[in-house]
Amino acid sequence: NGLKKYFPITGGLFGRKQGEVKAVDDVSFYVKKGETLGIVGESGCGKSTTGRLLMRLIEASEGKVVFEDKEITSMSKAELRKIRRDIQMVFQDPYASLNPRHSIEQILEEPLIVHGIGTKEERKKQVREMLEVVGLSSYHAKRYPHQFSGGQRQRIGIAKALMTKPKLIIADEPVSALDVSIQAQVLNLMKDIQKEFQLTYIFIAHDLGVVRHISDRVGVMYLGRLIELADSEELYENSYHPYTKALLSAVPIPDPDIEKKTILIEGEIPSPANPPAGCAFHTRCSHVMDICKTTRPAEQDINGHFVACHLYNK
Ligand code: SF4
Ligand code: MG
């Protein structure tokens, strides 16, 4: 609710603060139990920062994060440690998040040790079971991360996230680094385990195509702001925001009979250190009006479809 993350820009001889990057600038949304919320945007739009703010891997400058009636943003360190059993993250690059000197068994056992779960024997058993869940075998337990392919490493990353039996998984571009053929396998695995473990997902991606089939609702971010959020089907069939429309026009359709006109977005994405006034998209929008240059558009709720654009002011 009202999440903000401003990073100071320092420079000069004395490292004085010279400005700030508004990486996340007043973002609000909810996620329902058991659903998948996709969050999409170009690199630098603040989607990863938002994901990290949610579980307080970084601290918010302002705003609140509430999980099952508990306010994460005001928790003590001890409470936070406990809640991290329930909320886990899967990262884009599993290689960076898996200790290369630890065997898969050690890697998967670690979250259980951290949270004081089970006896040594129970933990070993759970590691072996989890390897099967993600489509690997218990004979992989003694191997090391470098002995696996990218897709297998992401399966290990997912297994690690599942070890504490979390309720919510925040996946930050979990398939972006993988070959397209492998992406579908990992997405299917994530869908299967969502059902099996009754998980809630926040699925971050830079590509609307990737989140389409896994998300119940999708939000689109631009320069630190959430500019549109709707049910998945609604967003793909009937988007409102000019930026979303342009992004969607660039997603390839597999049917060669459907012709689609790509809407080009003019110009470069502005620097988040110096975002345009008013609507952050106004420097690139073909529908720009005077008000767009001065006034930040308020979020409008059109039958549960949220959009922040002056074209839809009530
Ligand atoms: Fe375009 Fe104005 Fe809407 Fe921004 S508010 S997307 S500039 S029409
Ligand atoms: Mg990112």
TrEMBL record:
One Pfam family cited in the UniProt record for this chain: ABC_tran
Keywords: ATP-binding, Nucleotide-binding, Transport
Record domain ABC transporter: where: 1-248
GO molecular function terms noted in the UniProt entry: ATP binding; ATP hydrolysis activity
InterPro entries associated with the record: AAA+_ATPase (IPR003593), ABC_transp_ATP-bind (IPR050319), ABC_transporter-like_ATP-bd (IPR003439), ABC_transporter-like_CS (IPR017871), Oligopep_ABC_C (IPR013563), P-loop_NTPase (IPR027417)
Superkingdom per UniProt: Bacteria
Record PROSITE patterns: ABC_TRANSPORTER_1, ABC_TRANSPORTER_2
PANTHER family linked: TRANSPORT ATP-BINDING PROTEIN
Protein name per the record: Dipeptide/oligopeptide/nickel ABC transporter ATP-binding protein
Provenance organism: Neobacillus cucumis
Lineage, opening ranks: Bacteria, Bacillati, Bacillota, Bacilli, Bacillales
